[in-house]
Amino acid sequence: MKLAVVGATGLVGGEILEVLDERNFQYDELMLVASERSVGKKMEYKGKTYSVIGLADAVAKKPDVAIFSAGGGTSLEWAPKFAEVGTIVIDNSSAWRMNPKNKLIVPEINAKELTIDHRVIANPNCSTIQMVVALAPLHEKYKIKRIVVSTYQSVTGTGKAAVDQLNNERAGKVGEKVYPHPIDMNVLPHIDVFLDNGYTKEEMKMVNETKKIFSDDSIQVTATTVRLPVMGGHSESVNVEFDKDFDIDEVKSLLANFPGVILEDDVANNVYPMPLNAHKKDEVFVGRLRRDESQPNTLNMWVVADNLRKGAATNAIQIAEYMVEHNLIPQLQD
Fold first, then answer.
1. Got the DSSP string for 227-295?
2. In terms of Cα–Cα distance, which of 153, 103, 149 is closest to 124?
3. Are residues 28 and 168 in the same domain?
4. Which residue in the list 118, 139, 234, 279 is annotated as catalytic?
5. For the chain: N or C, fewer Cβ within 10 A?
6. Is 252 in the same domain as 174?
7. In the predicted model, what is the mean pLDDT of the chain?
8. From CA 105, how far away is CA 196, in angstroms rounded?
9. Is 234 a catalytic residue?
10. What is the pLDDT of residues 248-285, one digit of tens each?
11. Are residues 116 and 224 in the same domain?
12. Residue 166 has what pLDDT?
């Protein structure tokens, strides 16, 4: 097994390396890959020193699996080149998500769609992943009709420069700004670029990706995505209307028994999901479950996950694990 981590020097790249270690993902050769400006950089990992290599050199080495977290432009240019030499590419960017030819995978929900013929597999948006994991068992039981979601997203979703901006503002230092306004002591209802319909690209990702993951275009979704000065993970207020009525105790049981979900719903003891507690965890945490008393068949829920983990690195590695477990990597069959 030859494994490449593309974008290894970034926030998500670092998280990918951590999760690979924690999950004991087996490989014989590891390639740490980044843009030209990082080529030659030395990185310590698991007691070994690696030299960062460029994308062309990585393609030449024909890795079996390449986990990309290097931005959409890099993915559009280089993922096909890796695929041409037989590599399975698992991409964290938005480049391939809505392409009809590419699978958009959350393993707990739709990994069975993967076959040996799939070369470029898309990892969904971080905020979409945690929401659909929390909704999957409920959709199967009651069928989702409409979702209204408001997100409260960590600055880590923007990258290291955003974390630096927050820390600089808190320390009273002048530094690079990646947001159009201060983020410390503030809330920005603005994630990604605004589109002609008045929504942001992030909001429309949640709309479109949810339908694709569930293979159900009848689901109506509307989203407002918001950036907060926190670092542990993303939080979401989800209001979901079902075709069928539900029982709250049954909802709790369905969620508690679904893979990758941890139910934290004990308000009498102030137990509910928070990004502070989700940090460095791989699961999706769900709580504040209550019936929407304003209309029938509608549930309110609070969903939290570490966006660098299940929202990116962990989900990508789970896809790779599935491909290995089900013998779907062509080069390993030679």
1. B-S--S-EEEEEEEEESS---HHHHHHHHHTSTTEEE--BGGGTB---HHHHTT--SEEEEEEEE-TTS
2. 103
3. no
4. 234
5. C
6. yes
7. 97
8. 28
9. yes
10. 999 999 999 999 999 999 999 999 999 999 999 999 99
11. no
12. 98
Within the chain, what is the greatest distance between any pair of CA atoms? 60
User: Is 5 buried (19+), middle (13-18) or exposed (0-12) by CB count in 10 A?
Assistant: buried
Nearest residue to 107 via CA among 327, 332, 321: 321
Residues of the chain with pLDDT below 70 are 334
Same domain, 113 and 137: no
190 labelled catalytic: no
51, containing H or E segment: strand 48-51
Rounded to 5°, the CA angle 82-324-260 comes to 110
Instruction: Name residue 302's amino acid.
Output: W
Cα 322 to chain centroid, rounded: 17
As given in the structure block, the two tokens for residue 114 are 């993967």
Per-residue model confidence as pLDDT tens digits over 73-115: 999 999 999 999 999 999 999 999 999 999 999 999 999 999 9
Say whether both 155 and 237 belong to one domain.
Answer: yes
Question: Both ends of the chain: CA-CA distance in Å?
Answer: 12
Residue of 223, 227, 302 whose CA lies nearest to 261: 302
Q: Return the residue matching tokens 């928070």.
A: 274
Identity of the residue numbered 200: T
- Report residue 172: phi and psi, to 5°: 75, 25
- Residues 50, 139, single domain; the answer is no
Structural domain boundaries enclosing 79: 2-124+312-333
One-letter identity of residue 137: P
pLDDT tens profile 115-125: 999 999 999 99
Which candidate, 150, 147, 321, places its Cα nearest to that of 243? 147
Distance between CA atoms of residues 115 and 73, nearest Å: 26
The pTM for the full model equals 0.96
74 lies in the same domain as 186: no
